Amino acid sequence: MDILSEEQREPRGPRWGRGLQVIGVLVAIAAAAWILARREAPPTTRSSVPAPARSRAPSPRATPGTAGTGVVEISAPDGATVSVDGRRLGSGSQRVELEPGAHDVRVEQPGHDAFLREVQVIPGRTVRLEARLESESPVLQVHADVPGAQLFVDRKFVGQAPVTVHDLLPGRHQVNASAEGYEGQSRTVDVEPGPNEVTIRFKEVRLDESLAVTHKHGLGSCRGRLVASTNGLSYESDNARDSFSLPFRKLEPLEVDYLRKNLRVKERGGRTYNFTADGADELLVFQKTVEKARNRLADGG
């Protein structure tokens, strides 16, 4: 084995020092490369800010409206009919989605004035509308079977038939009519909110008379009631043997003895009935009313 001289040997201290220097340089280069790589690469940790949600298509009945539409909410009383642009939606309060622009809202209920409004619909907005219905003013239409008949309501002349009368309050009103050649007519009319109608008939024969009487027998008497209608004359009594119902064609004209307070009813070719009442005037009025109606019926009205 070769033995080196002391001149050929290197000192041990300086040789190990140079090795450590080389290792330090390599570590520094590796650290610098790692730092640069970290700066250039995107972060791998999750962000605390949530990612934007996916957009969803609007539902068909979204609130306040789907894209490009608006909503109209109509508050209406129960039973009231709600329409928009002439299309009936239903009864009571309604909610409807509409295209932008002007729309006509109509709310109706019997006995009330119609509620009419035009609403402007804006996309994405809700319009709220309260329909307050006012009681409808009464309107009375009066007709007559004689054209040009003079008509009066509550003693005030309102025109010639047919006529429409406004400015009336709900309640009972008196209608009178007159026409040349006919007997004057009178009607009591119960006027309600909204349209009302009455027809005055001059040519129609009306007869509805009733009178409490005593039927005088040969011996004794019985109580009952005479009833006259366009069908004839009837006597209604608890005594079935005395009761009768006869058409006018089977009766002779009624006669009244005013002083004796007696009304004579005679069946043609049959029995004769004598009636009395509390007053002679009652018998006379009954007789005249019945005979007038009989004459009109015989003349064809």
Task: Explain what the structure shows.
The protein has 301 residues and is α+β, with helices and mostly antiparallel strands. The chain has 3 domains: 70-130, Sandwich (Immunoglobulin-like), CATH 2.60.40.1120; 139-200, Immunoglobulin-like, CATH 2.60.40; 208-298, Pleckstrin-homology domain (PH domain)/Phosphotyrosine-binding domain (PTB) (PH-domain like, Roll), CATH 2.30.29. The protein has helices at 12-40, 280-298; strands at residues 70-75, 81-84, 87-91, 94-98, 101-108, 115-121, 126-130, 139-144, 150-153, 156-160, 163-165, 171-178, 185-191, 195-200, 208-216, 221-229, 232-237, 244-246, 255-257, 262-266, 272-276. The protein has a 7-stranded antiparallel sheet with strand order 18-17-16-15-21-20-19, with helices on one face. It has a 4-stranded antiparallel sheet with strand order 3-2-5-6, with no helix packed on it. A 4-stranded antiparallel sheet has the order 10-9-12-13, with no helix packed on it. A hairpin with a 2-residue loop joins strand 16 and strand 17. The longest helix has 29 residues, at 12-40. The N and C termini lie far apart (170 Å).
